[in-house]
Amino acid sequence: MNSNTHSNSEEHIFKIDCTDIILREYIIDDLEEFHSLTWQPEIHEFLPGYNVSKEQRLDWLMNYETKENKNFLKVVSEGGNIDELRLRLGIILKESGEFIGWCCTGIKEELPPPNREIMYAISKDHRGKGYSTQAAQGIIKYLFENTNVEVLNAISLIRNLPSNRVIQKCNFEFENIIDIENENYNVYKLSKSNWQIEIK
Predict the structure, then answer these.
(1) Confidence (pLDDT) at 5
(2) Residue-wise pLDDT tens digits, 63-119
(3) CB–CB of 192/200 below 8 Å?
């Protein structure tokens, strides 16, 4: 699994190469597939704030998400502190180039510091194939090897069994249960030191 940048005709696009998928920074051309995924009932059941209008999604992509990705990657390339910056990566299926989900990292305000989390979502058509686990492992490896992050969090609704399994496969340790907007979530943590032991 390697993190590197590749170029297209206009710019360098950041990518993390995993086994069957590629994680890569969002591009404006993702709009149609991204918007369609957010309206799958299987996704917005667990991520209700994501199913916005296409116009809103385009605004977020153009004015916030792609710009913050560039800022995040610039800080990393300069050896700086990523602080509260977010990184949002699409999950791209290698065999088809299809945008099948996303895997992101940012600050989870409901958790006590250090509260950087990873989160992910994947199309109903591509579940049960290990892609979410590959994506999570890819972003964990990148963060621990290339940034100042020492601890990562992951949360999942207790009733979202597949998501809990992915987190456990990535060697996160269960911490506690928290309530967010009247929903119960399992909270997990993974330290860089424990991750290094697990991958040896």
Answers:
(1) 40
(2) 999 999 999 999 999 999 999 999 999 999 999 999 999 999 999 999 999 999 999
(3) no
For the segment(s) 2-199, the CATH number from 3.40.630.30, 3.40.50.300, 1.10.357.10, 3.40.50.620 is 3.40.630.30
Cα torsion at 2, 13, 171, 153 (round to 10°)? 150
User: DSSP letter at 50?
Assistant: G
Count CA atoms closer than 13 A to 152's CA, side-chain side.
28
153 with 116: CB under 8 angstroms? yes
For the chain, give percent helix, strand, coil, nearest 5.
40, 30, 30
Query: Which pLDDT tens digit goes with each residue over 116-174?
Result: 999 999 999 999 999 999 999 999 999 999 999 999 999 999 999 999 999 999 999 99
pLDDT above 50 (res 7):
no
Residue extents of the structural domains in the chain: 2-199
146 and 75 Cβ atoms separated by less than 8 Å: no
